[in-house]
Amino acid sequence: MKQYQKIEDFLLDDSFHAWIEGDQEAAVFWQNWRKHHPDQEEMLNQAKALVYTLKRQPDPISDGEMRQEVTRLVQEARRRKSTAEAEAVAERRIEIRWSSWLTVAASILLVLGLGLGWRYYQTAQSPAVSYHQLKAKAKAPVALLEKVNHSAQPQTLLLADGSAIRLEKNSRISYPAKFSGDFREVYLSGEAFFEVAPNPRKPFLIYANETVTKVLGTSFRIRAFDNDTQVEVAVRTGKVSVYTQKTFRKGPVADHEGTGVLLIPNQEVVYNRKTESLQKSLVKIPELVAPKTGEALMTFDDQPVTDVLQRLEKAYGIDIVYDEELLRHCPITAEFMDETLYQKLRFICQAVGASYEVLDGQIVISSSGCR
């Protein structure tokens, strides 16, 4: 029988995923395994929570994407653990104690020994890449046009494919008059909000400093000035993948998909140009992803707090991790209208004696229950 001694042993096991996906034969095996290995129950639960966290993304991700994320995390964990830096980080993290295994699972990379946030470190420091260097290296089949905003107000640009770009002041962007080839490629210096026209067969690529943002059709903001120390990408709708230029390749998806950071609505990633690292988190002020559906007004009358949290998940497109068994016995009465997400969370937590924190682009609720 296969030995399961580390979390990655579970995560890379096909029968483990089959069990989580509802396969009856796999369920029989794992129920029997749990009976014979009670000492590994906590590790098993952590692995399950990690997979559930990926599966519960409000903007659904496929089983293939989920497994790519799991595989990438495990590979990154192994690489980092083989370095002296990882050993030092691990020693510091040992002192941390979480209130429940679910919180540990929610901080996915902490479970794998990588610390808080998704970070991708390069082995060698590279010089900064400027907008003009990116343009010079571009292999565009046609000459690029350039739009520069010298005014104090945002300017809107409509591309040939129907995509719209709102260019902020002191920013510039280069693009072809008409997209050809397998990709839609543009080059940004400064800040812009993109609304990309859907085209699954021709991904949209934005090159900004040392990063590449890949989308199929969505809306998001990028801030990447030449003299800034970081690059920021924040998603409003849809899904976006962000890569370092070192790791991005235009070949088959399998060649590079696992090296990027996948963002969903109200998530952002910050690239530190000095450390060459990408860190994922929530945007400062999460917005309703579907304000026209009546989600702005929320009324609850003596309802389980789990109903409230599920409603918030749907309204903001953000994954909220909590122990459903503990919180389903906690009733709450409330009416929300124009409060921010964090104001709503503070009220909810005060009402049921819980607390929350933001970890790795999701919200984690900690509570001892209301029984």
From TrEMBL:
Any one Gene Ontology molecular-function term assigned to this protein's record: sigma factor antagonist activity
UniProt cross-references to Pfam families, sorted A to Z: FecR, FecR_C
Entry keyword set: Membrane, Transmembrane, Transmembrane helix
Ranges where the FecR protein domain occurs: 155-240
Segments traversing the membrane: 101-121
InterPro entries linked: FecR, FecR_C, Ferrdict_sens_TM
Domain (Protein FecR C-terminal) ranges: 298-365
Superkingdom, natural source: Bacteria
Stored PANTHER family: PERIPLASMIC SIGNAL SENSOR AND SIGMA FACTOR ACTIVATOR FECR-RELATED (PTHR30273), PROTEIN FECR (PTHR30273:SF2)
Protein name: FecR family protein
